[in-house]
Specification:
713 residues; 5-stranded antiparallel β-sheet; 20 helices; 21 strands; 37% helix
Length: 713
């Protein structure tokens, strides 16, 4: 074999080897392709049909409405979302989204193979992933059905479901659903889901009002919401926005001139507070807790609720205005006011002068303070319920040092330490005479008085001690309780359960009516009317004259010893309101506020007067007289002027107590203090039986029975 022949032979053998290798590689590639196709087909076949899948319920932010239909706020959650129809999303936002996310949206059937190839080429040229091949439909499927797990199997199922989705729904439905489900980034711990929430979070406006530049900014965010957050990385957000504008111009959605004009604008982002701003936050928290108590925290946290409440923003403002105009200075005490409709139990106002930013404690509903003589109404009601005629039943007003068989010694003085001698219960009420009411309370039985208070609406635990009738409670009561208890009189003896929520609508459209009044007759109508008549006189000529609004109204003042708390609780036929004034963080005496000592007939009555002038509206009708008049029965109490006195039970000597009242054993003002402020401890308790300034008769300073002090007004 010649040299030339040998060379040809060797080249032939090498060529054969190369061909063989190519053939083998081709076969392997074909097998690989077939295997991949088989895998894709297998995975696709294993994917459940779209009809069998339930989309993820992304929900909406729960919103709370006032009684007039205005929004009080959204219940805070990890996500903010308010779905809107496509017609309320500007064309610029739709176009910007399609341009940057899926330019062939209207030309593919759910999976854009051309787009996948284009993205692959762009990624190869750049040496990194710069474009995605997923369509808007695929992204919607990802958001609603398959999740965001990065696996090939997930991508295959996603593509199959996207194709099915395109067959079931129109392009408009898909685009609307996508724009309402895509996350646009997290601001202050809350993720804006959907274009409406994004418009509010980043521009403080509705989506329908977005400009071209604003639409382009939002459309560019879903690719990398954290990196492109305009509040944290404005340069990256600006570059991305201008990229979207350029793409819109390239595809003909806007002109080059429009793109240039929009690109020249600053970001103009504005931190929106729609989903975090809450009107009347104290009442809002009260409503939220009621929702949790009734439906559970998971239901409330999940969102999608529409909550319709009983509160009137106009009355809320009237309450705040009344407080602020009466106590305008930063050094002034705090005030809280609650108003309840006695016909339904609906809470119409729950306002205070406390600043929610610094203290989330709701004084109107949670604050328990001593009511002073405002609690005497329950003694009076107990007496009239027994048939005691307040116009003819007489007690002697004078300093008391009572040695009671069941409760021990009790010394009682009047508010001003002035005494009127023999007087009827009507006169004693108008003078708010402690000594008369102390004797009446003992004659009726302190536990009977406590029972009446509970029947009328007081929910705080009562012990049935004599001092409770004069307002000396262990824990105190809230303005909400007092307003509701007095509402029982305004409604003719019908006790209501306070209602803050009228109706709740759930995400699926089902609704639960919570506004049906829960009423129970606890007093005969003639009893409620007779008590009301006396309290009307108290507003006209007694301790509550500053509360007079020129229309029929009834009420009672309350002041505790050392002027720690002051109250006015009153009502008309249409509204019952309780006003409290005091310092919530400590037991501070209000002896010199605007140059006066704060009693119930001063600032509390003035605040009530100002509030009710607005709150009464056009109503100026009188209380309804019952068809059946009150039937009186003879009454001979042990301590009344017609009763007898056992030896040693009644004297004028100086006892060991200096009996004033409205004291605070059992009340810890630290409950009312925010953690950031120094705590104020209550004054030390004396040994049992020798309390000073207790006022909680039967607790003797801190525990057992003994000397109490009581002076209340």
């Amino acid at each position: 074999m010649t040299y030339r022949e040998r060379r040809r032979y060797r080249r032939g053998r090498k060529g054969s080897k190369i061909l063989l290798v190519l053939v083998v590689l081709g076969i392997c590639s074909l097998i690989g392709v077939l295997a991949m196709i088989g895998y894709v087909l297998a995975v696709g076949a294993s994917a459940p049909p779209l009809s069998s899948l339930k989309p993820v319920d992304q929900g909406t932010s729960s919103v709370v409405f006032a009684a007039d239909g205005s929004r009080l706020g959204f219940i805070p959650s990890d996500e903010a979302r308010t779905p809107v129809r496509l017609r309320r999303i500007p064309q610029s936002m739709q176009d910007a989204t399609i341009a940057i996310e899926d330019q062939r949206f209207y030309h593919h059937g759910g999976v854009d193979y051309e787009g996948i190839l284009r993205a692959a080429i762009a990624d190869i040229k750049a040496g990194k992933a710069i474009e995605g091949g997923s369509t808007i439909t695929q992204q919607l499927v990802r958001n609603l059905y398959v999740g965001r797990q990065r696996t090939l199997a997930r991508k295959i199922r996603e593509a199959k479901l996207a194709a099915e989705l395109e067959k079931r729904h129109s392009k408009q439905w898909i685009l609307e659903s996508y724009l309402n489900s895509v996350p646009y980034g997290t601001v202050d711990g809350q993720t804006a889901v959907g274009v409406e929430a994004a418009a509010q979070v980043y521009f403080a406006k509705k989506a329908k009002n977005l400009t071209v530049a604003e639409s382009a900014l939002l459309a560019g965010l879903p690719q990398a919401p954290s990196e492109l957050n305009p509040f944290q990385n404005p340069k990256a957000a600006l570059d991305r926005r201008n990229e979207v504008l350029s793409k819109m111009a390239k595809l003909g959605y806007i002109t080059q001139a429009q793109a240039a004009q929009a690109a020249a604008q600053p970001l103009k982002v504005k931190h929106g507070h729609l989903y975090t701003r809450i009107r009347d936050p104290f009442f809002f928290d009260y409503v939220k807790q009621e929702l949790i108590d009734r439906f559970g925290v998971n239901t409330v946290k999940k969102g999608g609720l529409k909550v319709y409440t009983t509160i009137y923003p106009s009355l809320q403002q009237a309450g705040r205005d009344a407080i602020d105009s009466t106590l305008p200075y930063s050094t002034d005490p705090t005030s809280a006011i609650v108003a309840i409709d006695p016909r339904t139990g609906y809470i119409r106002a729950m306002a205070s002068s406390s600043t929610y930013k610094h203290k989330q404690f709701n004084l109107a509903a949670q604050g328990h303070r001593q009511p002073g003589s405002a609690f005497k109404v329950f003694v009076l009601t107990t007496a009239i319920k027994r048939g005691v005629n307040p116009n003819s039943t007489v007690y002697v007003s004078r300093p008391l040092f009572l040695n009671t068989p069941d409760y021990g010694q009790w010394r009682v003085q009047t508010y001003g330490q002035t005494y009127g001698g023999a007087m009827t219960l009507v006169r004693a009420t108008l003078r708010s005479d402690n000594t008369v009411y102390a004797q009446l309370d003992l004659d009726l039985g302190p536990k009977s008085v406590a029972d009446t208070a509970k029947e009328m609406g007081i929910t705080t635990k009562l012990d049935g001690y004599p001092a409770e009738g004069l307002g000396g409670l262990k824990r105190g009561v809230s303005p909400l309780e007092m307003a509701n208890a007095y509402a029982t009189l305004a409604s003719g003896g019908m006790r209501n359960k306070p209602i803050a929520i009228k109706r709740v609508v759930f995400p699926g459209g089902a609704a639960e009516d919570l506004g049906k009044p829960k009423r129970e007759r606890v007093l005969p109508e003639p009893v409620a009317y007779e008590v009301t008549k006396i309290l009307k006189m108290n507003v006209q000529s007694g301790t509550g004259t500053r509360a007079n609004i020129g229309c029929p109204a009834a009420g009672k003042t309350g002041t505790t010893d050392n002027f720690n708390d002051a109250w006015f609780v009153g009502f008309t036929p249409h509204l019952s309101s309780a006003t409290w004034v005091g310092y919530p963080n400590a037991l501070r005496e209000m002896r010199s506020v605007h140059g006066i000592s704060v009693a119930g007939g001063t600032f509390p009555a003035e605040i009530w007067h100002k509030f009710m002038l607005t709150a009464k509206g056009r109503h100026c009708d009188d209380f309804h007289a019952p068809a059946t008049p009150m039937h009186w029965t003879p009454f001979f109490g042990r301590y009344s002027s017609r009763g007898g006195y056992s030896s040693g039970s009644y004297s004028y000597g100086n006892g060991q107590g200096n009996t004033y009242g409205g004291g605070y054993r059992g009340y810890d003002p630290r409950v009312y203090q925010p953690p950031s402020q120094p705590q104020t401890s209550p004054s030390p308790a004396g040994p049992p039986g020798q309390g000073k300034g207790n006022g909680n008769f039967g607790t003797g300073g801190s525990g057992g029975k003994g000397h109490g002090r009581f002076k209340s007004h």
